C-alpha cells in the first residue's frame, strides 16, 4: 500500500507533541480570555461615563489596539519593549499580555455598546416603581445587557483562540510551531507532511472552536425574542 504521508503523524511522539502544543494554545487562550472578560467589563462601564477626558483616553486606547495588527503588537511586546527596558518575559507571558490588551479593548467596546443600547425608559420604569440606582442596574439593566452581550463575547473568544496561532512567530512552542518543526524534520523523507500536519491542526482548532461557536449561535437564537 502506498504511503500517503499520514504516517508522519504517528512517527515517534509527533501526535503527542501536537496535543501538547494544542494544550499550550488552550492555556494561553484561557488565561487571556479570563483576564480580557474581567477587565473588559470594567472598561466598558468606564466608557459609558459622560466625561470628555475619559472618553478620549478610552477611545484612543481602543483605536490604537484595533488599528495595530495583533502580530505587530506581539513583536512590539516581545522584541521591542522587553529588549528596550531589559524586561525578561517569556513568549507565553508576552502573548498573554498582548491578547489581554486586545481582548480588553474589544470586550470593553461590546459592554459599552450593550449598556448604551438599553432604552432610557427602562431606567425611568425602574425609578417609577421605587428602585434605587443600584437595584435598577442589578435587576433591570444587567439581565438585558448580558443577553445582548454574551453571543458577541463568545464570538470574540473564538477569534482570540484562532489568533493565538500568531504566537508561533515569537517562538512559543504551541501547536502551529510544533507542526512546523515536524514538517521541517520530515521535509526530505515525507514531502506531503505539510498536508497531514496542517490538516490535523485545522481539525484541532475546529474541535476547540466549533462548540463555542455553536453555543453563541444557540444563545443568540434563544434570546432573540
UniProtKB/TrEMBL annotation:
Keyword Glycosyltransferase: no
Transmembrane segments: 21-49, 61-80, 195-217
UniProt KW keywords: Cell membrane, Membrane, Transmembrane, Transmembrane helix, Transport
GO cellular component labels: ATP-binding cassette (ABC) transporter complex
GO MF term set: transmembrane transporter activity
Gene Ontology BP, a term: amino acid transport
Membrane topology, as annotated: Multi-pass membrane protein
InterPro entries referenced in this protein's UniProt entry, alphabetically: AA_ABC_transptr_permease_3TM, ArtM/GltK/GlnP/TcyL/YhdX-like, MetI-like, MetI-like_sf
Compartments, as annotated in UniProt: Cell membrane
PROSITE patterns given in the database record: ABC_TM1
Gene3D superfamilies linked to this entry: MetI-like
Top-rank lineage group of the source organism: Bacteria
Protein family per UniProt: Belongs to the binding-protein-dependent transport system permease family.
Protein name as it appears in the record: Amino acid ABC transporter permease
Gene behind the chain: glnP
